[in-house]
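Appendix C reproduces, verbatim, an entry submitted by the partner laboratory led by Prof. M.T., so that reviewers can inspect both the input and the predicted structure.
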Amino acid sequence: QVQLVESGGGLVQAGGSLRLSCAASGNIVSITSMGWYRQAPGKQRELVADITNNNSTNYVESVKGRFTISRDNAKNTVYLQMNSLKPEDTADYYCNAVVWSRSPYFRGTYWGQGTPVTVSS
């Protein structure tokens, strides 16, 4: 019904930057929110940042001031600009979207496949 395609992950040295993107497509009436989660080996998945349809944002404390989430509603795309990257940011990053669809009218939560981010020291 809805697909999320992520891109932008990769390898970077500490202090560097990456920009992740996630485009949603499919049976979309509206998107309530989009966000980014991450999961490092041996750790639980955590919310990194999310953004609502009125552009309200929130971030996990550890990335405040370094990461910026933004959204292009016309393209159903969310971005995560990651600056001043640290080794502890290393994880698989997953896009998430809460989407209203039609036929029937329902709400679903969808996940991208994950894109790896590795920050070397």
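The radius of gyration is 14 Å. Additional entries are available on request from the coordinating office.
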